[in-house]
Each structure stands twice: as C-alpha cells, then as structure tokens.
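Tip: read the tokens left to right.
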C-alpha cells in the first residue's frame, strides 16, 4: 500500500472545498474579548464549542498513542460514517461494500448519498469468505469497505483483518465500536502500515456515554484533514466534549464498566445455556449475544409483554434475537421471564 494516493479516491468537489475555520479556535488567547461570533454575552452555555476539539484530541492522542492530526471527532460514529461516504463516493455513481449481516447504518447513509450498497454475505458462522470478498470487490469496484469487528449484530470478531485491508482497492473502514470488550488488538496499531485505513471507535458502549453522542476516527493526517473540511464546524457540543474529557481523566470508571459487563456476559451465557427455549448462543466478543430460539416469535412476544426490550433479527437472521448484557437485576428479570416459556 506504499503507492496509495488518497486524493485519487476523493470526490473532485471535496478536494476543492474550503473548510469553515474559526479564527478563535485556531489561535491561543490569554484574555480575549469575544465579539466575533454573534453569541450572547450572557448565559451558562452562551459560547460555541471548540470547532477543532483540540482539548479532546490531545487527550485521545495520549490515550491512543496517535498524533492529534490523525484524529477526527464526530457526533457519534454515525456522523463519521456519513462523512466518509460523502468524501469518497460520488452520488449515483460509486458503491460501498459491507458485510451482511452487519451494522445497518453503513447502507443507510450510502443510500441517502445515492450510492449502491454491495453486500458481502457471511457464512453460517458469520465469517467472511475470502474468495467471495475478492470476487465482489473486484467485480463491483466499491470505493469504501465497512468492516465491523466485533460485528454487530453477530458479536464475532473478523479474523485476519490485514488481508482485507491489503486486498481492497479503496478505503477500508474498521468499525471498532465494541473493541474494548474483545481480546483482539485495535487496528489503530496498523495505521502507519496502511494509508487506506480508517478506524472508528465510540464512547457509546464501554465508556457508558451513549447519550453524549461522541465518536472518533483515526487515520492518516490526509484523510483526517478531509473529514475536518467536510464536517459541520460545531458538530459536537460543549457538554459532550467536557463529559468525554472528564471520563478519560477518570478512566478507571471505564475499566470497571468493562469488567462488570464481561462478568454479566459470563453469567448471562451460563444462564441462557440452561434454557429449553434456547437453540444456540453464538460466540461474542462484544457486550451482547446473538441467540437462536426454537420459537423466536413466541419468545420475543413474551419478552415484550413483560416490557423487556430486545432486538429481534428474524427473519433476516432466522430465529435470532440480539440481547445485550444489562445489570444483574435486568439480566435476572430476562432469565426469569425466559424460564416461563415452555
């Protein structure tokens, strides 16, 4: 991938686009009088957030051992997915490639942008067939490949990720929303090796900050510069930025959160295996299980009747429900309800 030219994959109008730059955020001041942005001089949140998110990027740079200019911050990973497609895919012309089944929003944002969605169907163990990958990517010539690992909704990690990065003629986006629960290394370690790689992570899962809506992209400085050009100037609010920075400064909380979640996953796995209604529990490296039931409609209806909300994946994944680990009280309520199903 040494000869990879990022600009050759970027839409021409994006290359010509001038970013919205806040003079205030690009400079350091000791005691400024702020009369430049038509803000109110009064109120608790009267000032716009830092459009460059430099304080959070500094924290992430240390935490992830990545230069700050190789980090972009988004309003959740969803915004970053949307921006990546807009940067690299010409509407009504280009296509993306995604695993099937996988996170639906890749296809959603591609469709909104007028791009074709090529599906790479997973085998019965929810693994990628390498020959099928090579065939689909060569024939369809997609510009972006979204690779979710651990995969949502199946829970398993993708093996030999470097094979797919090396053999894809375009941008490979590895979505690591659940990486903190996995024993696999993050693909952030591969950024120096592969200039076509973008790694997405989020504060919504292991960090317990889904309500803050903050995600991060790690890539080459060239690709991050493009994302910074296309994003809205104040895409992440001050409350969310401060909350994430606070969480990083107190990261023992997330470590305990991960420990508690994995303990509940282990307990939940043992309890689910004892239930007559359960046909199969698929291996998971995330904070949820994909569970196959003998009578999925009956099970889902019973859970809903007891106000236990789960994610029914049938008929797309026949007989299956995705169940994420909750607190012990929530998990116990789930199991007790399932025990009533003959």
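Filled-in amino acids:
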């Amino acid at each position: 991938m040494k000869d990879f030219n990022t600009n050759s994959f970027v839409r021409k109008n994006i290359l010509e686009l001038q970013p919205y730059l806040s003079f205030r955020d690009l400079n350091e001041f000791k005691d400024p009088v702020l009369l430049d942005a038509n803000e109110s001089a009064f109120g608790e949140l009267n000032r716009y957030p830092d459009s460059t998110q430099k304080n959070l990027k500094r924290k992430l740079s240390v935490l992830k051992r990545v230069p700050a200019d190789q980090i972009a911050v988004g309003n959740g990973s969803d915004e970053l997915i949307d921006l990546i497609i807009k940067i690299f895919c010409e509407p009504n012309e280009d296509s993306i490639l995604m695993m099937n089944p996988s996170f639906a929003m890749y296809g959603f944002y591609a469709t909104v942008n007028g791009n074709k969605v090529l599906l790479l169907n997973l085998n019965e163990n929810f693994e990628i067939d390498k020959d099928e990958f090579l065939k689909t990517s060569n024939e369809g010539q997609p510009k972006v490949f979204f690779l979710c690992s651990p995969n949502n909704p199946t829970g398993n990690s993708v093996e030999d990720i470097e094979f797919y990065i090396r053999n894809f003629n375009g941008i490979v986006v590895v979505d690591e929303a659940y990486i903190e629960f996995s024993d696999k290394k993050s693909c952030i370690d591969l950024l120096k090796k592969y200039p076509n790689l973008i790694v997405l992570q989020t504060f919504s899962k292991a960090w317990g900050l889904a309500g803050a809506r903050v995600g991060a992209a790690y890539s080459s400085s060239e690709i991050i510069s493009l994302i910074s050009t296309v994003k809205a100037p104040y895409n992440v609010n001050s409350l969310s930025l401060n909350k994430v920075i606070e969480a990083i400064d107190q990261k023992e909380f997330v470590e305990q959160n991960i420990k508690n979640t994995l303990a509940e996953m282990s307990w939940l796995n043992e309890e689910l295996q004892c239930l007559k209604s359960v046909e199969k529990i698929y291996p998971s490296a995330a904070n949820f299980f994909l569970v196959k039931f003998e009578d999925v409609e009956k099970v889902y209806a019973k859970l809903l009747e007891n106000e236990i909300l789960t994610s029914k994946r049938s008929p797309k994944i026949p007989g299956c429900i995705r169940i994420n680990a909750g607190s012990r009280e929530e998990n116990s309520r789930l199991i007790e309800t399932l025990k009533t199903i003959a």
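Residues 54 and 339 are 51 Å apart (CA to CA). The chain has a mean pLDDT of 96.
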